[in-house]
Design goal:
There is one protein chain. By secondary structure, the protein is an alpha/beta fold. 50% of the residues lie in helices and 13% in strands. The chain folds into two domains: 2-63, Transferase, Pyrimidine Nucleoside Phosphorylase, Chain A, domain 3; 74-329, Pyrimidine Nucleoside Phosphorylase, Chain A, domain 2, CATH 3.40.1030.10. It has a five-stranded mixed β-sheet, sandwiched between helices. The protein has a two-stranded parallel ribbon with strand order 2-3. Strand 6 (233-239) and strand 7 (242-248) form a beta hairpin. Helix 5 crosses helix 14 and helix 6 crosses helix 13. The protein starts with a helix and ends with a helix.
Length: 335
């Protein structure tokens, strides 16, 4: 079967949902060589992964993940990375803000790949813990309101492909799949991507998989995998059996724009310091506003506010009153 898949890809043909699933199955059962896997990954990247290929691959990986049995359905805030913008860890900040408002959060993430600081790196710099045991992670979501899910602990099949991926040194279908592999019980996701084409592919993929209430976004003008305050953000909201494509500009809700340099970050320690300042109400206007804006869209897709502006005002006040910092301190004390 694997040789047939390689032959099909060598002619530039697309794979079926089932063939894409078979690749994952073969990795799990050690029925594929490193050379074969490398060839498949490069061929898919060169051809361009289709939504159906992505859906089959994600379906197979997700079904083999260690499940997190949280009783309270949670929201996830994550991104594909790969935008090379070197922003501070915005999605991690948003996750903590939403949790501080009583919304269960299952923050799926990893260490840095294309940036200086991945979400797990900054979590460690903030002196927060994460667990390899699904039950402990679920208990934290249900009792503390947030837990951080270190992807390699929960996706053993992905780990088996690690050597090949590292030797290739390029983004592959694994990178595109990552943000959609959260093993927790979710009710919503806000998910940033690094390009317009990936936004459309993942939205179509989510629809094929029957996923509900996922907001994908990409900063069109500055290229970031966040909801931008520097220009237009392209969005795709997957809900029910439909996809709503639209754009957002800060001026739509009366917000100013800021130059991209305002959101630059550094290493995990520097990014943790930026987040701490924001949570203490001492962040720059740009830093505080981008955290509040991205958090506001989380509230909006959950139906907790009537519009994004209402959510933005509510969250900014919450931040400036020091309530997020107080919540963070309670998390640190608990660990």
């Amino acid at each position: 079967m694997i040789r047939e898949i390689i032959k099909k890809l060598s002619f530039g043909n697309n794979l079926t949902f089932e063939e894409s699933q078979k690749i994952v199955e073969s990795i799990e059962k050690d029925e594929i060589t490193e050379a074969q896997l490398g060839g498949i990954l490069v061929s898919l990247r060169t051809k361009g992964e289709t939504p159906e290929e992505l859906a089959g691959f994600i379906s197979a990986l997700h079904s083999r993940a260690k499940r997190v049995p949280n009783k309270s359905p949670a929201i996830d805030v994550c991104g594909t990375g790969g935008d090379h913008s070197n922003t501070f860890n915005i999605s991690t900040g948003v996750a903590i803000v939403l949790a501080s408002m009583g919304i269960p959060v299952a923050k799926h993430g990893n260490r840095a790949a294309s940036s200086k600081s991945g979400s797990i790196d900054v979590v460690e710099a903030l002196n927060l813990k994460f667990h390899s045991e699904p039950e402990k992670t679920a208990e934290e979501i249900d009792s503390k309101g947030i837990s951080f899910i270190f992807a390699p602990y929960y996706h053993p099949v992905v780990g088996k492909a690690g050597k090949v991926r590292k030797e290739l040194g390029i983004g592959t279908i694994f990178n595109l799949s990552g943000p959609m592999l959260n093993p927790a019980n979710l009710k919503a996701q806000i998910l940033g991507v690094y390009s317009s084409s990936v936004l459309k592919k993942l939205a179509e993929c989510a629809k094929i998989l029957g996923r509900d209430n996922i907001l994908f976004y990409h900063g069109k003008d500055d290229g970031i995998d966040e909801i931008s305050l520097s220009g237009v953000t392209e969005m795709a909201w997957v809900k029910g059996n439909s996809i709503d494509y639209f754009t957002f500009h800060p001026s739509d809700i009366g917000l100013p724009t800021y130059p991209p340099e305002e959101f630059k970050g550094g290493d995990p320690k520097e990014n943790a310091e930026i987040l701490l300042n924001i949570f203490k109400g001492k962040g720059t206007p740009a830093q505080t506003d981008i955290i509040a804006l991205n958090s506001a869209f989380g509230l909006y897709i959950l139906g907790n506010v009537k519009n994004v502006r209402e959510g933005f005002d509510k969250i900014k006040e919450h931040i400036l009153e020091g309530k997020v910092y107080k919540f963070l301190e309670s998390l640190r004390e608990a660990t």
